[in-house]
Amino acid sequence: MPELVALDVATDPDAWRVLGFVVDDDDVCAVDGVAIRLGSAGRKISAWALADVPGGVEVDGLLTVPPPPSPPTAASHANGTVALDHLVVMSPHADRTIKALAVHGIEPRRQRHTDQYGPPFTQTFFRLGRPILELIGPDTPAGSEPARFYGVAFTVDDLDATAALLGDRLGRVKDAVQPGRRIATLRREAGAGIPVAFMSPGADSLDAGASSDEAQ
Fold first, then answer.
1. Please, is 8 exposed, middle or buried when counting C-beta atoms within 10 Å of its C-beta (0-12, 13-18, 19+)?
2. Tell me: the pLDDT tens digits for 17-65?
3. Is 174 helix (H, G, I), strand (E, B) or coil?
4. Does residue 20 contact residue 79 with C-beta atoms inside 8 Å?
């Protein structure tokens, strides 16, 4: 299956450095083999790179760009980040997006229906190598707009230590959907430029059900 190897994020690299991420001189933040290329053109998460999917392809509006020429150098982040747990994509027509992903070998692994946060919606989970792709869409199609990248959740070694480092830039630590895991979301004022959540270590998110808490 295609693996996620890079994300292009249109945000200030220095803001991520202040949040405890290591960002190299090329403005790349390396997280467990995924190159997060900061300061990119566009807005928010503007594109992804997938192994074995050509650059220039749009997957229901999700722009695919060429991967980095070589894997990013591993980094030890002060905020404790050790992995990209999941990438969140939003779509007004989840079935359409699922079919578009399947064209490139990205097949759904499980679904979860919920009305916990208001109108009913469906979470569909896919594997992109180690990271999870979480697609969120209404149970009934609600528009013809393309899918869009939304935000990311990182796994950290010690969520309490991450919370202590980030202070009031991080929201309340609470239980995640996955049993035995906890999650906290960066406040908008932290300046990450995109929704970012941090999660405690635990069972594989795909097996336990990835959380959409950072999408609220």
1. buried
2. 999 999 999 999 999 999 999 999 999 999 999 998 989 999 999 999 9
3. strand
4. yes
Query: Which residue from 41, 26, 39, 37 is spatially nearest to 4, judged by alpha carbons?
Result: 37
Interacting residues of 140 by C-beta distance below 8 A, sequence separation 6+: none
Which pair of structure tokens corresponds to residue 139?
Answer: 């149970």
User: What's CA 174's distance to the chain center, in Å?
Assistant: 19
Quote the CA–CA distance of 183 and 206 in Å, as a whole number.
Answer: 16
Task: Give the H/E segment covering residue 85.
Answer: strand 81-90
- Residue 26 contacts by C-beta under 8 Å, 6 or more apart in sequence? none
Residues near 93 by Cβ (< 8 Å), separated by ≥ 6? Answer: 137, 141, 142, 143, 144
Sequence-distant (≥ 6) Cβ neighbours of residue 125 within 8 angstroms: 86, 108, 109, 110, 111, 112, 132, 133, 134, 135, 205, 206, 209, 210
